Every structure is written in C-alpha cells, then in structure tokens.
Amino acid sequence: MYFENRKNLYEEMPDNLRGKLIKRNGVIDFMDFTPSCLSLVAVVSYKIKQIFEHLNVSKDEYVFKKISIKDYAEEFYLLFIPIIPDTEFVYPKCIFKDMFDNGNIKTFNNRTEYYNDPNDYCLKKVVLKDTYRDYDLLYPQGGGFFFSERIVNAMQRENIVGYNLVKGGYFYEEIDFV
C-alpha cells in the first residue's frame, strides 16, 4: 500500500499536527518519535530545514510537515524520506545477515530468491542502481536511512544535536551504487 499511495500519504496529511515530548526535559534538533510511520525518520528543528534548503537538497528526496510541540514556540517538522522500493536493489551485490544466526551472511541472485528464503534477514550492504548515486537522502526498504556526507558535514558545522552516526556494530549498514 505504501508504494502505491506514497504521494497521497504526504499530501493528504493534515497541516495542523500537534505533539508533545515524552520523557525529555527539552527539545533538540533531531528527535525520535512515536508511533512509528513508514518513511518518517525524525522530528527535526527549523535548523535542519534551513540546512536542506541551503544545500538545495532535491525536494523529491524528502518531505517536511510542520508540527507544533506542546509548550514550545520553536518550529519543528516531521521529516519523511520516501522509501526506495527493494525492486531497485541490485540483489546479487547486496549483503544480508540472518537476524537470528550471528554469523550467517548471505547474498541472493534476485528479489524472488530473497522472499522465498525461509529465514529473516537484515540488510548489511545495500546496492542501488547508479541513478541514486547523487542523492543526499536515501531510505532503502528494509534498511536504515542515509544522509550524504555534505548533509552530515553541515549538521556538524551547525552543531545539530540529537543524531548519531553509526560507524560499526549490529546496526551498521553500507550503501553502494552500480
């Protein structure tokens, strides 16, 4: 349903969204949220919106929906990054890890082979078609989201608070293009 209705999801979302902080003493620039919603990656400050605008990030790569946070006057936005369907994966080059078998790494020849496998896998390396190489924001289906180096550098320069760069461990993923 998501992929068929992706455009309508954002356009038909109400404009008078409101939220509140749970278990936090104050707002920061990049905040987690609940409940989950497909392609929603964070609640972000106006500073992040300015970074995207200053860098001229393509509006095809993200959607901001304004949200009011109870007891705060600052501007905040829901940041959506449209999900790239797994039909865009170059499966023979992707690397998957069995979610329940610590050492089992696997590749698949195609999407059908992946979906017919009885085990559950998470992406460790996603390989996309070269058309995505110049994107600043990527959110492959079944994986995490990726920010370009220029966005990360701008966030560091602007002292954005609330995000972590994953540089290793269980949640580490790579992305590549062919």
Q: What structural class do you assign from the helix and strand content?
A: alpha+beta
Q: Spell out the helices and strands N to C.
A: HEEEHEEEEHEEEHE
Query: What proportion of the residues form beta strands (DSSP E)?
Result: 25-35%
Portion of residues in helices?
A: 10-25%
Instruction: Output mean pLDDT.
Output: 92
Number of helical runs? 4
**Order of strands, widest sheet:** 1-4-5-3-2
Net shape: globular
Distance separating the two termini: 28 Å
List low-confidence stretches. none
From the alpha carbons, calculate the radius of gyration and give it in angstroms: 18 Å
State the total count of DSSP E strands: 11
What composes the largest sheet?
5 strands, mixed
Walk me through what this model shows.
This protein has about 180 residues and is an alpha+beta fold. It is about 20% helix and about 25% strand. It contains four helices and eleven strands. It has helices spanning about 1-10, 45-55, 110-115, 150-155; strands spanning about 15-20, 30, 40-45, 65-70, 75-80, 95-100, 105, 120-130, 135-140, 145, 175. The strands form three sheets. A five-stranded mixed beta sheet has the order 1-4-5-3-2. β4 and β5 form a beta hairpin. The model has no long low-confidence stretch (mean pLDDT about 90).
Task: Tell me the layout of helices and strands.
Layout: H1 2-11, E1 17-19, E2 30-31, E3 40-45, H2 46-54, E4 63-69, E5 76-80, E6 95-98, E7 105-106, H3 111-116, E8 121-128, E9 137-138, E10 146-147, H4 149-157, E11 174-177
Parallel strand pairs: 1-4, 8-11
Antiparallel strand pairs: 2-3, 3-5, 4-5, 6-7, 6-8, 9-10
